[in-house]
Structure formats: C-alpha cells, structure tokens
TrEMBL record:
InterPro entries: MobA-like_NTP_Trfase (IPR025877), Nucleotide-diphossugar_trans (IPR029044). One of its GO terms (molecular function) is nucleotidyltransferase activity. It comes from the Archaea. The keyword Nucleotide-binding does not apply. Keywords: Transferase. The keyword Transferase applies. SUPFAM superfamilies: Nucleotide-diphospho-sugar transferases. It holds the Pfam family NTP_transf_3. It comes from Nitrososphaera viennensis. Gene3D superfamilies: Spore Coat Polysaccharide Biosynthesis Protein SpsA, Chain A. Residues 2-114 form the MobA-like NTP transferase domain. This is NTP transferase domain-containing protein.
Length: 203
C-alpha cells in the first residue's frame, strides 16, 4: 500500500519515495518482499497522491493498481477486489526497516493464525512502540497497535468488516511505521546502529 499523501512528514516528497540511508522507503519494502522468496508476485496500490511512486515502481517492473486515494480502508477494499481470490499479504510502504528474514517470519506466523479466518494481522504492544519513539496510528484493545501488515484471504475479505486475528510481534522492523519527521529520525538512528554493528552487511 503506497497511496498515502504523507502530509505529517512535512517534506514535500511522496512518503514512499522518502529516502532512508540512501534508499527509498518503497525500495526497502519491495526488496524485503522480493528477497524473502515467499510471493508469486508483488503488486503496489498507488493513488493520485503518489504519481512519482507509480512511475518509479513501473520503471522497476512492479505492477501497480490505481486506487482513488480516498482513505486506507477504501483503497484496501479496491485492492482486495482486484486480487481476489488470491491470498495477499498487505504491507504499508512506510515500514522501511523490514528485512527478508522478518517478512518470512511474518508470513509463517500469519498463515498459522489465519486458518479458517479471512484475515490475520501483526500487532505490537503500544508500550513497545512508544518506547521506540513511535506514536501508534491505530491503537486498540488494552495495549495494542496495528502494524498495517495483514494476510488476507481476498475472496472472503473483499467487502465490509471481517474477522481479524492478531499475532503480537514486538520488533522494531514492524513497529516503526514512519509517519512523522521524528519517526524518520528514529529509523535513521536504528539503521545507523545496525550498520555500525554489521560492517559490510549494511541495511
């Protein structure tokens, strides 16, 4: 999902095209998905708010689906209608710390949780996200927030509210949904720390 305007970033750049340590958010997410080797294809949902993102993705051979940019639920509904009856892992473009290893772990956990259910999502404990410096966008329950990462059975989840199961995963790679300048600074700090430790195996 890469159709949001990203107004809270206050940068003038489409959020998926924002750079983190020399790579765009959308590049990082697509690379993690590709390198996981878990998907038949990768499709990006774009909107009128992200024309540069659409051009970039198409230049790299990624299929795009146009949505109106009317809001995340509305755009998601359009995406699910177009990919049905497939099972689809929906990932937002603003989780730039994702790695192939994390994606593979997510797929395994959500596939197990989604047996006989139309959807299963990764959730994070609110206290963990706030400890990283993240302000959760979608909080629910006593102390949980939504990562935006969901495995859908598109044939069963195309319309209306669906039963959704949750897997808690307190990991920075999924908790750091970058919506503000402050959260981008947190991401930059984590990438720098990881690169200092990894040497040549840089993020």
């Amino acid at each position: 999902m890469c159709g949001g305007r990203g107004t809270r970033m206050e940068s003038g750049t489409e959020k998926p095209m924002t750079e983190l340590a020399g790579r765009r958010f959308i590049e990082r997410v697509v690379l993690a998905l590709k390198e996981s080797g878990r998907f038949e294809k990768i499709v990006a949902a774009v909107s009128p708010s992200t024309p540069a993102t659409k051009r970039f993705l198409q230049s790299t051979g990624i299929e795009t689906i146009d949505t109106p940019g009317a809001g995340y639920p509305q755009d998601l509904s359009i995406l699910l209608e177009k990919v049905a009856p497939s099972r689809v892992l929906v990932v937002p473009a603003d989780v730039p710390l994702l790695t192939a290893e994390t994606v593979s772990e997510i797929v395994d956990k959500l596939a197990a949780a989604a047996v006989n259910a139309p959807a299963a999502s990764i959730a994070i404990e609110k206290s963990f996200a706030e400890g990283l410096g993240v302000t959760p966008s979608v909080a629910f329950g006593n102390d949980l927030c939504h990562s935006g990462i969901t495995l859908f059975d598109a044939a069963r989840a195309k319309k209306g509210a669906v039963e959704e199961r949750y897997v808690i995963m307190n990991r920075a790679e999924v908790a750091l949904n970058v919506n503000t300048k402050r959260e981008k600074e947190v991401a930059e700090s984590l990438v720098k720390r990881a690169n200092d430790l990894a040497g040549d195996a840089r993020l």
